[in-house]
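Practice problem: predict the structure.
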Amino acid sequence: MLSFIENHLRILGEVGILTRDTFVQAFKRPLDLRRIVLEMYNLGVSSLSITNVTLLFTGMVIAIQTSYTLGAYGAKIYTGNMVGLSIALELGPVLTAIMIAGRVGAGITADLGSMKVTEQVDAMRALAANPVKYLVVPRTLALLVMVPALTLLAVVVGIFGGLLMAVFDIGQTAGFYIAHVHEQLTVHDLFVGLGKTPFFALAIAIIACYNGLNTTGGADGVGRATRNTVVAASMTIFVSNFFLAKLLLWL
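Answer:
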């Protein structure tokens, strides 16, 4: 039991050191903007389909379930209010981050893990190149930009999914649904939802890069590190979401 706790405390310490080094290197010149833009495309734009499809059908399901539940109390007219608020505050940011953790986090770990087991990372150090500067910083900055952008787009798509069900299944008009969404959502609600996304992005990037740079054991080790990234990033997102929600609502 003691060794288990010591091992996890050691990992937390190493993750903290990697986070510190990432921020230090991010402010050191030169900054490879071309590499960052490339990572924004590889990690962000390529994830558009999975995040948008996820939130589209989530919005549709929420609209159906909400209308069914509220209909028992004669409050079906508030379907738009519930869909807009739940997606903007919680489901949009969290589900987008989970999808990115599964797709992008696993990909980052696999890439860096393959470089580690084939000794490419050691070769970079031998050439006096900092792996954090050239491997971690571009991916982290790209995710810090793209996760909020993807979340905002996913929120719009999710609300649109609710609109489809409101019109074709519940029997409301598009204008009625949009009016109720607009009535419920405020700038504060969007701030609370989107305010969590940079923390999710940082968690995904650091966990994925840490597992990738510490991969051992060849191809089996790469697969194990990838699995650990998805599990750890997902759990971190769910746990941090609670504390971030409390903090942002208080602010």
